[in-house]
Each structure stands twice: as C-alpha cells, then as structure tokens.
Amino acid sequence: MSDTREILLTNDDGIESPGIRALYDALSEVGNVTTVAPADDQSAVGRAMTYEVPVEEHELGYAVEGTPSDCVVAGLAELGPYPDIVVSGCNEGANIGAYVLGRSGTVSAAVEAAFFGVPAIAASLHVPQSQWPRDTSVEEYEEVAEAVRYLVEHAPDAGVFEEAEYLNVNGPLPSATSGAAEGRESAPADAPERTPMVVTRPSHVYDMDATRDDGVVTLHDRTWEQLDGDTLSDPEGTDRRAVFDGKISVSPLTAPHTTERHDALDDLAERF
C-alpha cells in the first residue's frame, strides 16, 4: 500500500535480543520494517560513534558491528528505505529519569534520528532490581511493543511530532501491572486488561555515589533500588512514578542541547 509507513528499527541490546524481536513483529503489522541493529550488546554507550563498521545481513535486516548511533546513521543514509519514523528498543531495563537519557544507547538512537529530522520512539521494559539479571522472553515485551505500534500508527498523523522530536516509552513487566509491589493499591477486578498509558516528564531524581576499596572505585546507582520499594518520592506526572504505579510512560522530548539566551552570560561576553 502506498500509505505503508517505512520504519527503521534498532536497539542497543543487540539484534538477537527478544525485545527487538517483539517490536519487529508488532511493527510489521503497520509498516515496512528495516532492522539495522548492533551485532552485540551496546548498552549504555550513549551517542558514541565508531564511524567505520562492518555490516552483515540478518534475518531481521542488518547486523552492524557498532553502536546504536552508528546504526541509525547507516540505516538512514545507506542501508534501507528512508524511514518515516525510527524506533529503538525494546530495551531490557527501563530508561527513565532525566539523568539516564544521555547514557542510554536506546534513547541515543532516537536522539540521533531527531537530529536528522526524523521522528523517533525509544522503548524500554522495566525489570525490577530484585529480578536482575533476568532472562526476558519475547512475550514479556509484547505489551510495550503494542504501545509502540499504536504510537507509530497514530502519533504522526495526530501532530505529536510537530511538538516533540522523539518519544521515550517505558513499561512495567506484565506481572507487575496487576498490583505492583506489596503495599500498593491493587487494580480493580473489573479493570481492563490493557495497561494504561500516561504522558509524563522525565524525573529529576538522582541518587548516585561511589565507594573505594583496594584501589577500585565502584559506582552505585541507587535510583533503581528506590523502584523496588513500597513508596517512591517522585511526583505524579513523572516517568518513574508512572512505571512504579504499573503504567506505560510516554515522555514527549526534544533533542538535547537547545540554547537559551541569558542576560548574565550576554553581559559577561560583552565585558570579555
């Protein structure tokens, strides 16, 4: 069909991950999917680039010996039809909170697309710290994949990307949506099966520290431990609060490093 969307699919967990398979299957229902993804795990590489990357054909598309940003540039410029939208994920582990956005390879792929002027969606599945590491299955990603499929199908025509450059989607494990952690209110018996989707903003909670032992410094990210507790300090409307409450979070975002003029800096520059 002439109106079929061209979709470029990538991730940072690698092309063999169950999350990208779940997205590939869901998105193939609404568009022509070209997968250009790292050949192996490239988690937390941010927007790092390799610049020269070997490429091999794969049953889903192309496996690239490089980073998610490499994959987006290669996919847009060379390897596939020019897409209407780029989708990155579905990541094993949430990418929530403002401090995570620049670290995540999953989100960075969406940001790379945004700099090209192509709408993008990053998608991730929250895995509780108490269950990490976990061998996730394709089925566990299906609900987030369905949310992304819905957004790919409807968000462009609804004008969403006239305001946002990319969407950051995070969902809970399916088993966590029926009542979440002990002490939280359970869902009503007659509640619909589909997990609710809410529009959010990135949380600004940041709780990292480091310890030194015998010449080795270990970094500790305690924000993930908070999500396993019975309460959370993040306010309503934030991405972390939504996932903690068993909802699918969608944050409309713009590419970073936008500049605003400030009188104080103008004054300093004039006096230099």
From TrEMBL:
Subcellular location: Cytoplasm
Cofactor notes: Binds 1 divalent metal cation per subunit.
Top-rank taxon, per record: Archaea
Keywords, in A-Z order: Cytoplasm, Hydrolase, Metal-binding, Nucleotide-binding
Pfam families assigned: SurE
Region (Disordered) location: 172-196, 252-272
UniProt-recorded name of the protein: 5'-nucleotidase SurE
Binding site for a divalent metal cation: D12, D13, S43, N91
Cofactor: a divalent metal cation
GO CC terms in record: cytoplasm
Start-end of Basic and acidic residues biased regions: 182-193, 258-272
Residues in coiled coil: none
EC number(s) given by UniProt: 3.1.3.5
Job of this protein: Nucleotidase that shows phosphatase activity on nucleoside 5'-monophosphates.
Gene3D superfamilies referenced in this protein's UniProt entry, alphabetically: Survival protein SurE-like phosphatase/nucleotidase
Family: Belongs to the SurE nucleotidase family.
GO molecular function: 5'-nucleotidase activity; metal ion binding; nucleotide binding
Gene that this sequence comes from: surE
Catalytic activity: a ribonucleoside 5'-phosphate + H2O = a ribonucleoside + phosphate
Survival protein SurE-like phosphatase/nucleotidase domain boundaries: 7-175
InterPro entries cross-referenced by the UniProt entry: SurE, SurE-like_Pase/nucleotidase, SurE-like_sf
